[in-house]
Amino acid sequence: MRVGVLTGGGDCPGLNAVLRAIARKGERVFGDELVGFVDAWDGVMERRTTPLTIETMRGSLPRGGTVLGTRRGSPFDHPDGVDRVKTAMAELGLEALIVIGGNGSLSVACKLYNEHGIPVVGVPKTIDNDIEGTDVTFGFNTAVQIATDAIDRLHTTAESHDRVMVVEVMGRHSGWIATTAGIAGGATAVLIPEHPFDIDEVCERIIRRHNRGRFASIIVVAEGATPKEGTFDVGEREIDRFGHVRLGGIGNLLASEIGLRTGFETRPVLLGHVQRGGTPTAYDRVLSTRFGVAAIDAVHRGAFGTMVALHGAEIGETPLVDVIGRTRPVDPALYTDVAEIFFA
Amino acid sequence: MRVGVLTGGGDCPGLNAVLRAIARKGERVFGDELVGFVDAWDGVMERRTTPLTIETMRGSLPRGGTVLGTRRGSPFDHPDGVDRVKTAMAELGLEALIVIGGNGSLSVACKLYNEHGIPVVGVPKTIDNDIEGTDVTFGFNTAVQIATDAIDRLHTTAESHDRVMVVEVMGRHSGWIATTAGIAGGATAVLIPEHPFDIDEVCERIIRRHNRGRFASIIVVAEGATPKEGTFDVGEREIDRFGHVRLGGIGNLLASEIGLRTGFETRPVLLGHVQRGGTPTAYDRVLSTRFGVAAIDAVHRGAFGTMVALHGAEIGETPLVDVIGRTRPVDPALYTDVAEIFFA
Amino acid sequence: MRVGVLTGGGDCPGLNAVLRAIARKGERVFGDELVGFVDAWDGVMERRTTPLTIETMRGSLPRGGTVLGTRRGSPFDHPDGVDRVKTAMAELGLEALIVIGGNGSLSVACKLYNEHGIPVVGVPKTIDNDIEGTDVTFGFNTAVQIATDAIDRLHTTAESHDRVMVVEVMGRHSGWIATTAGIAGGATAVLIPEHPFDIDEVCERIIRRHNRGRFASIIVVAEGATPKEGTFDVGEREIDRFGHVRLGGIGNLLASEIGLRTGFETRPVLLGHVQRGGTPTAYDRVLSTRFGVAAIDAVHRGAFGTMVALHGAEIGETPLVDVIGRTRPVDPALYTDVAEIFFA
Amino acid sequence: MRVGVLTGGGDCPGLNAVLRAIARKGERVFGDELVGFVDAWDGVMERRTTPLTIETMRGSLPRGGTVLGTRRGSPFDHPDGVDRVKTAMAELGLEALIVIGGNGSLSVACKLYNEHGIPVVGVPKTIDNDIEGTDVTFGFNTAVQIATDAIDRLHTTAESHDRVMVVEVMGRHSGWIATTAGIAGGATAVLIPEHPFDIDEVCERIIRRHNRGRFASIIVVAEGATPKEGTFDVGEREIDRFGHVRLGGIGNLLASEIGLRTGFETRPVLLGHVQRGGTPTAYDRVLSTRFGVAAIDAVHRGAFGTMVALHGAEIGETPLVDVIGRTRPVDPALYTDVAEIFFA
């Protein structure tokens, strides 16, 4: 078979490992010819391709990033986008398309399958771990490890200076990274999009700790966390000169606010893009490899319109329609039952 | 409640995190008093204890090892061992005993519960990941990461010198570490206890690679892997002066044998004890924390004779009788379907 | 002898290793009694002390931070500050004071020695590496390694997305971290306080790269780097609600400006406090240990008013008067001859 | 100019960084054409070359190993070896040869220059740090960091089990790695080739620690360390079936011996080849880069018969004749004045 492959959305550790696995199993077991599209959907529409072979993927397992390049954007943004996808697939003789991407790319894939009959198989990718239908997404484990390593470092500074450190981690829509790294790093509090936070409560908790002689605190905040309405005004301070919300908005703001309210020295740390690049952890390399193998298997089983997934310890698949348009919130058992015991 | 806690068997990253979680939830939520036994069963029989509190466990989350100490040995090795355990519990006023350990310690715990009515709860611990009844044990993720980091390093040397590197990893009875690190590290072959290996086949694979211009190979071998009968003689060379099989036995032997048979420069690397010490990965810290919380919960629910466990993404429990006396072999889907595609 | 010790200024990896070395050599070889002052000069003035012994420092070698705590501030800020230092030393029976700190603490130490005859020995501490009189300060190697690890990770994201990444590293007055991590990380350009930068030149360089097909660029900027006068207006945007320059000021601004001028996707990353906490590298542990040994040796030789120092491969000492009031700029041979060849 | 380059001897982190620096400065500043010889001297004699350009070295900075391959062996092993080197250089139009290697390769280079007038420039390479004429060699810092990370991990196991761990590190002729990693890792004793050890003394030291309640000990031993004559018999046990001394010989033996004599649980750990592969530390990347720049500069200055070197904080050069045929022993100030205070 000739099969197209693309990587969409933001960078994520493990992308190359997925591509390598597809190439290895496809080429070696099925005798497939794999065609990589460069720069995601743009590459499909503009027919920019690169061969995806065992040879071209050699040495890529420990490398972060994606050799195919990635970009945001969708064929549905263009009046003739879908036609261009169809033509590309026809002219390149592709019998299937593997889409490795996040909520955005998977939604496009789902629509192309459901409304236009294009034979797609999805592979869920996000460091945020918030895609429905899979227990874990690749890249998440690496992001959590990086955030935890950073928190480990910040503890010693917080303790040496009797400081509050506010660590902003990724997670625009969900608190998976914040909660998991917060547990692993021994945080004082974790603020996540799923639960608007009460700034008074956060400050009280920090003050209670101080009164018990614990002068250092680490507050982990997901970039998408927001204060409860009416508690404090985020204002317009964090909008940059281009009208975008500044990365680090909530982290900076929260640090200022905590410092102001408690009188304790408080410093923000914004981990930012380091969470999504670089070599994947062993866990992510294995998960990515299993996802890649499962994706090319699914193509050969004709399981189109699905996404490969981790269900417990096993690799399975989930219909794309059950996945898209939603965000998987952090496991309440993790946040409430576990995290909350440890925080404060 | 007053609850005793011990850590048994070999060192394992995450032990302190389990202890800390027990102390945090026990003390903060249930108002328990936790009594740590020093040096595993010896500490129970000799009534050597240390208080296990939020305060004594402070700062221990990122630390490898166990503040309680650990030791092999069992009360069943002593004629009055069980009586001493019972007396210790009675005199210390303990209503339950949490046993954090591997197959050995859990078997003791099971027997103490079944035959002597001692209220125990188990927490499965082994870097080898081969305990029945749980999908993952804590410490395994860290061991795999350490082995993978080492394999990453060995690749560049293998390539610069056109060498075969034989990496011996832990796994006396199972190939979990070898298989997982082998996939994550991009090994050429993985040899595990579950499948006696054919030295001819291994050498042929390496030679085939050479013929394709791939002059560097990484062979990962679990310490418990053995050759198929009749294929080659392990001999008595690897017995040390005390009559013990030398750590590194199979790794050294295999490197010699491959070098001899293929004529290629071959070097052994024996990772040994570095795999079981030091700071746990974020994954293991979270799993350990969840296990610790679940263990003290199980005590309060009276779920004695069970072991906490990971089932899929959730924490559950498994009766100890279903766990002991067996070794969980590596998932065939991992070894056969995934690993074998990548090796060679 | 009874000797006081304090750690001043910002957190820095290796502080505990210095303290441990002082305690080991002092106690074991000289039979000294070491008195640790808590929270730097505040602890001296308020006579808050803690014993500094082999035992209290046990296990501290791999730990970041300082068990003594640290704080900014000086006895010269108080009308009776110097008297309180003298009284503290007299009443505690201290014959010498070891001051581990940066430019600020060393200036205080120098003045106490020169103007008030207090027998001090300095140990130069700054992750910024910009203290005169020593080739290297401890903490610098760790900070550079952390920044380099981050740059390694950012490369894959920059390449996958064809992006410019602007990485702000520490260095308010000097470009040591930026230059060294820039060389180690393979940056496109490094902007440092020693050389006001020309934004046009930076953008041209990035554009030239793009024209050669190199779509990813990493710009490393020290927090203290400033644009050449008249080139672009930093404005007042980066002043926070408390009137402080916001950490990340130049990094955020530069990313905005580059994006605006080149039209390329540009993202800021602000490494911040992770650069100054956590476990020291092996290099810093050894340098710290040698500095600690040398400091207590200097006390016993009566070499007061000096600072221990690295001169080439050897440990020596430098009079404090030759050190204070200056900033050691980055080695021109490093910046001009080496860095500039690699950048672009 | 057309300049040949080869990498000889064992793998060493930073080799690619040296090559990349030569290519960058050579191509960009001098307009040189660089010719890489594949597999060291074999490649010269067999005229196997590969172009060494900015482009071919792209992305190699963080990669361990050498893209040129490396091998032991010398033209002086072949009757017409020198002639073949001369012919190769003549026919390839090479005006100089940069030899990146250890004592072996540099001796060859020296002889080729002195006796045969071949214009060579050397770059000192060894993880062992024992080349005369330079304060530090690249690769050493990485090896020490890897060994220190391993020792950190072993501490927790040693402490949890009350064990003695014997860690064998590289260093056939010198104790640089052992001493430096021993200081950085907080070892109990360090045994090095420069000082034959007394097994009785080592055991007494461990016993004294036990008597003080310190039940865990880490003994670091360089692979080339030997017992004082007459103290104990190394015997012939550690010779493998091919008559080679087994890697790990002294480590295994010492662990057995200490266990036997003290009665304490003792375990060997043999770090082996992981110390010489994989990504270089930031320090080694910078040193390698500076060495590469200096080497191509030396070629253009006509400074043949020399080796680039680190003298203090500066890059200089040393005549090859002053370098070869010797081993630089570990700095006594490090071993005696520093290390010995910390051990025990």
Give me a quick take on this structure:
4 copies of one chain form a homotetramer. Chain A is α/β, with parallel strands linked by helices.
Overview of the structural elements:
The structure is a homotetramer of 344-residue chains. Chain A has 344 residues and is an alpha/beta fold. Chain A has 2 domains: 2-139 and 280-322, Rossmann fold (3-Layer(aba) Sandwich); 142-277, Rossmann fold (3-Layer(aba) Sandwich). The first copy, chain A, is built from 10 helices and 11 strands. Chain A has helices at residues 15-30, 40-45, 81-91, 103-116, 140-161, 176-185, 199-211, 249-262, 282-301, 332-342; strands at residues 2-7, 33-37, 49-52, 96-101, 120-124, 164-169, 189-191, 217-222, 266-270, 306-311, 314-319. Chain A has a 7-stranded mixed beta sheet with strand order 3-2-1-4-5-10-11, sandwiched between helices. Chain A has a 4-stranded parallel beta sheet with strand order 7-8-6-9, sandwiched between helices. In chain A, α1 (15-30) crosses α9, α5 (140-161) crosses α6 and α7 crosses α8. The longest helix of chain A has 22 residues, at 140-161. The first copy, chain A, is elongated. Mean pLDDT of chain A is 93; it is low at 239-247. Chains B and D meet through α5, α8 and β9 of B and α5, α8 and β9 of D. Chains A, B, C, D: Substrate binds at residues 126-128, 163, 170-172, 223, 267, 273-276. Chains A, B, C, D: Mg(2+) binds at residue 103.
Supply Rg of chain A.
Answer: 22 Å
Overall mean pLDDT of chain A stands at 93
Q: Compute the number of strand runs of chain A.
A: 11
Task: Measure the end-to-end span of chain A.
Answer: 56 Å
> Strand fraction band of chain A?
15-25%
* Count of distinct structural domains of chain A: 2
Strand order of the largest sheet of chain A: 3-2-1-4-5-10-11
Q: Categorize the overall geometry of chain A.
A: elongated
Instruction: Please bin the fraction of helical residues of chain A.
Output: 25-40%
